[in-house]
């Protein structure tokens, strides 16, 4: 898919949804290796190799925190099911839009989701649905004229 502005020259390739090669959570955060009995599947992603969900979509600290939280609360997560996909995120300050990994660990008393930060200014990114793109400021000209094709 492509995100583009109807006023200026802004355009960006985006990815939303799940990839076919992903198996169950949290294996896509590593190499796709199923290690649900081990609390440390993160060790299978050394810094010099790229996991299935790339470091451009989720940094290693968040990746490790999600895997640890999953294993710490595996008994609370119904049938071990965790919704997960690529989603759009936007910086509330500079309006930069990026594709990031999203998931939700649905626990009895809380929901654990990754918190992504803007690489430019450190602001916490907000999740953006495709339905809201038309009301979203363009990162280039700040007009609300973004479209998806």
Name the features.
three-stranded antiparallel sheet, mainly beta, 8 strands, elongated, 149 residues, 1 helix
Polypeptide structure, described:
The chain has one helix and eight strands, in the order E-E-H-E-E-E-E-E-E. The relative contact order is 0.21. It has 149 residues and is mainly β. A hairpin with a 5-residue loop joins strand 1 and strand 2. It is elongated, with a radius of gyration of 17 Å. Helices cover 9% and strands 21% of the residues. It starts with a strand and ends with a strand. About 3% of the residues have low confidence.
Low-confidence stretches: 35-39
**Main sheet attributes: strand count, strand direction, barrel closure:** 3 strands, antiparallel
Strand order of the biggest β-sheet: 2-1-8
Rg for CA atoms: 17 Å
Distance between the termini: 6 Å
The number of helical elements comes to: 1
Strand content: 15-25%
Q: Averaged pLDDT, please?
A: 86
The number of strands is 8
Oligomer: single chain
> What best-fitting shape do the alpha-carbon axes yield?
elongated
From N to C, what is the helix and strand string? EEHEEEEEE
Category from helices, strands and their pairing:
mainly beta
Report the helical percentage. under 10%
Give a quick precis of the structure.
This protein is mainly β and 149 residues long. It contains 1 helix and 8 strands; from the N terminus they run ββαββββββ. Residues 35-39 have low confidence and may be disordered.
What's the SSE blueprint?
Layout: E1 2-5, E2 11-13, H1 60-72, E3 84-90, E4 97-103, E5 105-106, E6 111-112, E7 126-128, E8 146-148
Antiparallel strand pairs: 1-2, 1-8, 3-4, 3-7, 5-6
């Amino acid at each position: 898919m492509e995100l583009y502005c109807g006023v200026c020259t802004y355009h960006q390739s985006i990815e939303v949804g799940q990839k076919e090669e992903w198996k169950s959570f949290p294996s896509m955060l590593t190499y796709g290796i199923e290690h649900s009995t081990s609390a440390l599947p993160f060790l299978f992603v050394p810094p010099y190799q790229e996991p299935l969900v790339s470091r451009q979509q989720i940094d290693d600290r968040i990746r490790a925190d999600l895997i640890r939280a999953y294993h710490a609360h595996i008994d609370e997560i119904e049938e071990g099911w965790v919704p997960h996909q690529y989603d759009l995120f936007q910086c509330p300050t500079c309006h930069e839009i990026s594709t990031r990994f999203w998931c939700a660990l649905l626990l009895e008393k809380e929901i654990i989701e990754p918190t992504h930060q803007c690489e430019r200014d450190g602001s916490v990114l907000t999740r953006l649905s495709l339905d809201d793109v038309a009301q979203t400021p363009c990162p280039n000209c700040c007009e609300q004229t973004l479209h998806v094709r």
